[in-house]
Amino acid sequence: MSKPAVVLLSGGLDSATCLAIARAEGFEVCALSFRYGQRHEVELQAAKRVAEVLGASSHKIMEIDLRLFGGSALTADIPVPKDRPMTEISHGVPVTYVPARNTIFLSFALAYAEVLNAYDIFIGVNALDYSGYPDCRPEFIEAFENMANLGTSYALASGKRIHIHTPLLRLSKAEIIRKGRALGVDYDLTISCYDPSADGTPCGRCDSCLLRKKGFEEA
Predict the structure, then answer these.
(1) What percentage of the chain has pLDDT greater than the value 70?
(2) I want to staple 195 with a disulfide (CB 3.0 to 4.6 A). Which of 52, 78, 80, 208 is the partner?
């Protein structure tokens, strides 16, 4: 019988690849997405498509509203940066950073994992082709994993260790795409744009669109 794993699924390129990897490793995938007040909520339609096509056994969408705090171009009335050169994208923390987002998402994933008695959580963070987000770094993932093993009843009672899997952590965007293609990921199902139109058409100009384009060109 397959072991359950919680896979954080945004509907983007990275998380779709992450889900495919979890499936390829034999896990029963319990996908978890978030409606958190993001301006690019259309990504949830993509997440539903990806979960269905790539064979997730379940897909839950958690409702939280980070617009209450704001502080990000994704959750407040702040313009999304457009047409930035790669040298600028790769330095500093951009206004699209959502304060503590991966900490919040991983905390919900951990609670879900405890209910499922699952010791594996997958997240598609990347420390190479990324936009300077501090919660995509290996130091953050290691710290969260340590916290998870100290702060959950099921880990303490069983003596088993919870693992936060980051299979994309040290891959370039092109390497991620090549890996996903090898696993049969249809990237037409995904969306990466931070500022899509109402019908879901990507802007083609935000940091995420530009990184995606660069990845496909190099792949």
Answers:
(1) 98
(2) 80
